[in-house]
Design brief:
Keywords: Membrane, Transmembrane, Transmembrane helix. By secondary structure, this protein is of the alpha+beta class. Helices cover 62% and strands 14% of the residues. 16% of the residues are buried.
Length: 177
């Protein structure tokens, strides 16, 4: 490739690989977060208007404990309903009824999601730094156009991730007040 040094190509490839790692980390973190939320209440449906959960056998789980400081609500089905249910073995081993714990945005799952988002942003910022250094080193027009294009793309992705991170942080602050 005329006008493109091996060093330029390697730096561009390194920055691109950092971006790919950051985006893969985002995807894996999002997938794990959704999966952890689903598995805790698999088969159960939540009715926010009545603040109850409904099990696959049409029994209701009512709130029995709430800690607004920690953002935790625990729901439990009546023990008699669970103990006489034909699906009890697959659902719970408790003789007190099936429980589901619901957490708000202050929970560990949301904290981990924010942590992974911050790691992704850091990787992308490192890629941006590499591209900016190479932009100052590049002398020809064609490499500069490539660098500015890739830099613009990186900046847009970082801006989107930062906006998402700040939105979730402001929601956490609103939950605390």
């Amino acid at each position: 490739m005329a006008g493109l040094s091996l060093e330029f190509i390697l730096m561009l490839a390194y920055a691109a690989s950092l971006a790919v790692i950051a985006l893969l980390l985002e995807w894996v973190a999002r997938h794990a977060h959704r999966r952890s939320l689903r598995s805790a209440a698999s088969g159960f449906t939540y009715d926010p208007s009545r603040d109850i959960w409904r099990c696959p056998q049409d029994q209701h789980l009512f709130p029995i404990f709430s800690d607004s400081a920690k953002g935790v609500v625990i729901y439990r089905a009546p023990a008699a309903a669970c103990n006489s249910c034909r699906s009890k073995e697959a659902c719970t081993d408790s003789d007190h009824g099936r429980e589901i714990e619901r957490r708000d945005r202050n929970s560990v799952e949301y904290g981990m999601k924010q942590f992974h988002r911050a790691i992704s942003i850091t990787l992308l910022l490192l890629g941006i730094l590499i591209l900016v250094v190479e932009l100052f080193r590049a002398r020809d027009l064609y490499p500069r156009i490539i660098l500015v294009s890739v830099l613009t793309l990186f900046c847009l992705v970082v801006q989107r991730l930062c906006a998402s991170l700040s939105q979730s942080a402001s929601k956490n602050v609103q939950h605390l007040t």
